[in-house]
């Protein structure tokens, strides 16, 4: 009996020891889970249910002078999923009660609603079937996104982002530039990317094992910041008119390309900078001419031809070396000791011309005979003060030629002569506009610009250009040149242009030979007209330029486009008509 009792006690003890040991194991494990590994396990659990989401900062708008958007941002949606949660489900599919929806059926419905591709979706899911993230379709507009959301597929998750839109399309595409998959690619988008770009933020939300977002679980970890608004001086309506005008003229002339600029004389603001051909930033791939990705008016260097004679005349008068009625003898050709020679565009017997007559007839021989009264250095310095031979200081735009000519001319004997009638030197269309703005503004140059500045999200204005005015020639010299340029319209190379009723116009034509590398100058030309109105108190400068026209090689071919655009400018801004007759100087002596 005693032995039996002892045996029972032993068994009881063994059982108790085993129970205690088992409990101890559980306690130790519980402590390990609840205390030792608690932080790590919580983080792992959180990672499995916590979903990070990028919150995109909206890219700032580019606007014209009246606030019309030239480039803005629109909301787009990417549809994502967690491949490990992709499975059949019960419920509704687009409002229709379905007992069981297969993955194939769900993806087919998604493709129909979004315009996506089922094969691509399946490929993305299969790439990492145990992952928590994969793209199914990207870049949906609101209409398609709402159609996808109406499907009520539980394992679809939207990702909101900002996309770029250009309401004025090709009208201002040459200036705005465009965005690509790698960010800003051209134009103002690229030049002012730092200002326009927003900074992205982030948030997280938690979802259950069934993939459904848990209510109230969204936490913002970093706030997004929107980009600034880039304010330009461009008048988008006038920009459209300018673009249409030169496009029509270029087709008539069978020109390779064309540019037009409109400048406010008193402010130096560019109201229009048009190019043909140009790019539609909403459909960049449709543009096959890579040169149209930017603005040729800002980036294309060319030899300006006779429009530069206005600057030489202003320098001569400013230095007291000539006057509008100063008379010289002008033969058809002129030869030089080094063997070089020049000639006028059309044959004529020896003439007795005044400086006004030299400009009126656009005589190469005459302007060089007078121009040599200035030293090479003086002429170079004046051209530079007019804005040539250097980058446009108040314009930030990719692709502008550096034009770093230093402080003295590096011209051989022939170029020294040719430079006075615009050959052998390089300019852009905007630089020629700057020359005429200076003359029209009584000799005071205001750096041309088409950006006012960038207003940041917090209301500060940055990137405002320096437009400090500088005097280039005296007011008297500028006024006399302006008056002489009326001779060009009334009796010179623009005499065939129909007048703009009620207005005195001062303008100059240009015809430049196009260099063909080592072959020298060939038969191609660049023709242009630059002018201002009203001549007695100029308010606006207009330039038009056509490269390699085929139906005519004469600058008069550019006159109809100049007249049309100048008429549009005067009408749009309701410029008061001239109240006096054109002031004309004698062209001969």
Structural features, described:
The protein is of the alpha+beta class and 589 residues long. 33% of the residues lie in helices and 23% in strands. The protein is built from 18 helices and 25 strands. The strands form eight sheets. Strands 2, 3, 6, 7, 12, 20 and 21 form a seven-stranded mixed sheet that branches. Strands 14-13-25-24-23 form a five-stranded antiparallel sheet, with helices on both faces. Helix 3 runs antiparallel to helix 5, helix 9 packs antiparallel against helix 18 and helix 11 (309-318) crosses helix 17. The longest helix has 35 residues, at 2-36. The chain is elongated. The mean pLDDT is 90.
The fraction of residues in strands falls at 15-25%
The coarse overall form would be elongated
Quickly give the structural class: alpha+beta
Number of helices: 18
Largest sheet: 7 strands, mixed
Instruction: State the low-pLDDT regions, or none.
Output: none
CA distance, first residue to last residue: 157 Å
- Beta-strand segment tally: 25
Radius of gyration, CA atoms, in whole angstroms = 37 Å
Average predicted confidence as pLDDT: 90
Residue share in helix: 25-40%
SSE blueprint and pairings:
Elements: H1 2-36, H2 38-49, E1 50-55, E2 62-63, E3 69-81, E4 89-93, E5 96-101, H3 103-114, H4 118-127, E6 134-140, H5 142-149, E7 156-165, H6 173-176, E8 179-180, E9 183-184, H7 187-191, H8 193-196, E10 201-206, E11 219-222, E12 229-232, H9 236-253, E13 257-264, E14 270-276, H10 296-299, H11 309-318, E15 327-330, E16 333-335, E17 341-343, E18 351-354, H12 355-361, H13 364-371, H14 376-385, H15 413-418, H16 429-440, E19 444-445, E20 451-455, E21 461-462, E22 470-471, H17 475-491, E23 506-515, E24 521-533, E25 540-547, H18 559-572
Helix pairs in contact: 3-5, 9-18, 11-17, 12-17
């Amino acid at each position: 009996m005693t032995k039996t009792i002892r045996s029972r006690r032993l068994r009881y003890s063994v059982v108790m020891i085993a129970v205690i040991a088992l409990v101890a194991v559980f306690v130790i494990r519980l402590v390990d889970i609840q205390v030792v590994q608690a932080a790590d396990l919580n983080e792992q659990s959180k990672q499995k249910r916590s979903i990070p989401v990028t919150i995109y900062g909206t890219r700032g708008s580019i606007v014209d002078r009246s606030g019309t958007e030239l480039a803005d941002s629109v909301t787009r949606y990417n549809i994502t999923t967690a491949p490990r949660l992709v499975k059949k489900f019960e419920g509704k599919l687009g409002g229709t009660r379905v007992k069981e929806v297969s993955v194939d059926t769900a993806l087919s419905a998604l493709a129909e609603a979004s315009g996506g591709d089922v094969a691509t979706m399946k490929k993305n899911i299969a790439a990492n079937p145990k992952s928590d993230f994969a793209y199914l379709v990207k870049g949906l507009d609101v209409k398609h996104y709402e159609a996808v959301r109406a499907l009520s597929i539980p394992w679809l998750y939207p990702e909101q982002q900002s996309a770029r839109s250009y309401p004025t399309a090709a009208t201002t595409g040459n200036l705005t530039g465009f965005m690509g998959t790698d960010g800003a690619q051209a134009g103002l988008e690229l030049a002012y990317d730092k200002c326009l770009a927003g900074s992205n933020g982030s948030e997280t939300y938690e979802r259950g094992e069934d993939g459904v977002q848990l209510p109230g679980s969204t936490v913002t970890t970093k706030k997004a910041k929107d980009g600034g608004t880039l304010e330009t001086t461009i008048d988008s309506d006038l920009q459209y008119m300018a673009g249409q005008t030169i496009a029509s003229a270029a087709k008539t002339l069978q020109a390779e390309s064309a540019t037009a600029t409109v400048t406010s004389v008193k402010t130096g603001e560019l109201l229009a900078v048009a190019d043909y051909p140009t790019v539609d930033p909403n459909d960049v791939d449709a543009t096959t001419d890579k040169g149209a990705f930017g603005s040729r008016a800002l980036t294309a260097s060319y030899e300006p031809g006779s429009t530069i004679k206005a600057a030489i005349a202003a320098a001569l008068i400013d230095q007291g070396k000539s006057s509008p009625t100063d008379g010289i003898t002008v033969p058809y050709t002129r030869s030089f000791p080094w063997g070089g020679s020049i000639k006028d565009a059309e044959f004529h017997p020896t003439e007795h011309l005044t400086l006004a007559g030299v400009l009126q007839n656009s005589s190469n021989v005459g302007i060089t005979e007078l121009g040599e009264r200035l030293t090479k250095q003086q002429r170079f310095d004046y051209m530079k003060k007019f804005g040539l031979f250097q980058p446009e200081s108040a314009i930030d735009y990719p692709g502008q030629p550096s034009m770093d000519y230093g402080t003295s001319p590096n011209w051989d004997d022939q170029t020294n002569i040719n430079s006075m009638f615009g050959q052998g030197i390089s300019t852009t269309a905007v630089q020629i506009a700057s020359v005429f703005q200076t003359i029209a503004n009584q000799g005071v140059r205001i750096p041309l610009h088409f950006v006012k500045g960038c207003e940041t999200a917090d209301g500060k204005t940055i990137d405002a250009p320096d437009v400090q005015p500088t005097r280039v020639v005296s007011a008297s010299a500028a006024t006399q040149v302006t008056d002489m340029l009326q001779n060009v319209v009334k009796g010179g190379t623009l005499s065939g242009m129909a007048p703009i009723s009620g207005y005195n116009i001062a303008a100059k034509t240009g015809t430049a030979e196009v260099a063909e590398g080592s072959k020298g100058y060939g038969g191609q030309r660049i023709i242009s007209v630059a002018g201002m109105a009203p001549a007695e108190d100029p308010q606006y400068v207009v330039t038009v330029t056509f490269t390699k026209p085929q139906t005519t090689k004469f600058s008069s071919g550019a006159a109809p486009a100049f007249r049309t655009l100048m008429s549009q400018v005067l009408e749009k801004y309701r410029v008061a008509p001239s109240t006096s007759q054109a002031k004309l100087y004698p062209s001969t002596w």
